[in-house]
Amino acid sequence: MHNLLHHRFGQHSILFIIAFIVIGVLFVTTIFQKEDAVVERSQQPFAPDIYVGTTLAPVADLVRAVGGERVTVTVWDSAEEYLQRPMGSDASLWFVVGEGVDEWVGETVSDAEIVLLRDDVDIAKLEYEVEIGKVDPAAPHYYWMSFRGLQNMTIAIARELNLVDKVNTEMYISNAYQYSLTLAEHNNEYKNTIDDVGPINVIAMDHLFDEFLYYFGLNVVGLFNMEGDRQEALEDLVYNARYYEVDVVLVPQGYNINDITRALADISIKIVSLDVYGEGMKDVVGFVRENVSALLLGAQ
What is the pTM of this model? Predict the structure, then answer.
C-alpha cells in the first residue's frame, strides 16, 4: 500500500509540478502580453489633440506642418474675438510673434503656455549707413517674412510640441526637418530669381522689413519713419528716391500711401504693398512667394 501511495503521490507530484509550470508560463506570458499592449498603446498618439492658438496664418501653417494630425490650430485676430469664441479656452499652447502684433495674448489668455517665437530668431542687426540714420535693432521686425526666420520658427515649434507630447518626438523632428528642406529649396529659387533681375534699390517704411530685405539681398538705400513732421519726412523721401535712383518703395499692406503717392508722382517709382500678416493665404511658401512676386513686379 505504501509503495502504491508513494507511486500515486509521486505521479500526482509530477503532474502538479507540470501543471504549476504550465500555469506559471501562461501567467507570465499573459502579463508580458498586457505589458506589451500597454507599451504599444503608449506609443500611439493619444487623444485629445494638442490645441494650439496663434495670431498669424503663417505661424498656423508652420504648426500644422510640424504637428500633423496631432494638432488643431486656431487663429485669433484680437482679444475681442478670442473672448467671444467658445473654443477660445481650449488652446493650451500658444505661439506668438510679438513685434506689436499679438501682445494682447499675454494679457488675455490664462492657463496656457505662451511661446514667443522671436526668441528663436536671430534678428539681423543691419546698419545701413544712409542719411536718415541706422536701423534700430530694438524696433519691430517682421521676421516671419523670410525663409530664414520661418526655418528657425519651425525648429522652435517642433521643440515645444515635443515638450507637450514626447511620445511623438520622432514625428515632430522628421516633419520639421522635411519642411525646413522645403523652405530652403524655395528660398534658393527666389534668391536666384531676384539676383537674375539685378540690383534692386529699395526704400522701406520703418524697420519692419529688415529681415525680408536683408535675407533676399536687396539694396536698401533708406528706411523711413513717417512719424513726427510728415511733410519733412516726405521731402526726405523724395530727395533720397531721386539721389539713390530708387526702384521700389515698400510699405505694409493697408499703409496710408495717399500723400506718398502724390509726393512721388513725378518720379518713376513703384509703391509696393507687402502682405505682412498672410491673411487668406494657403501656406507659408505661397505667402513668401506673393511678396517676392509683388517686389519683382514693382521693380520691372
Answer: 0.75
Residue 244, in any domain of the structure: yes
pLDDT (0 to 100) of residue 207:
65
State yes or no: pLDDT of 87 exceeds 80. Answer: no
CATH number (domain holding residue 122) = 3.40.50.1980
Q: How many CB atoms lie within 10 A of CB 62?
A: 28
Amino acid identity at 1? M
Q: How far is CA 173 from CA 53, 144, 151, 167, in A?
A: 21, 20, 13, 12
Tell me which residue range forms the domain holding 268.
Answer: 117-300
Q: Grid cell 546698419 — which residue?
A: 127
144 pLDDT above the threshold of 60: yes
DSSP 56: -
Q: What's the number of domains the chain is made of?
A: 1
Give the separation between CA 248 and CA 44, rounded to whole angstroms. 52
CA 290 to CA 57: how far, in whole Å? 14
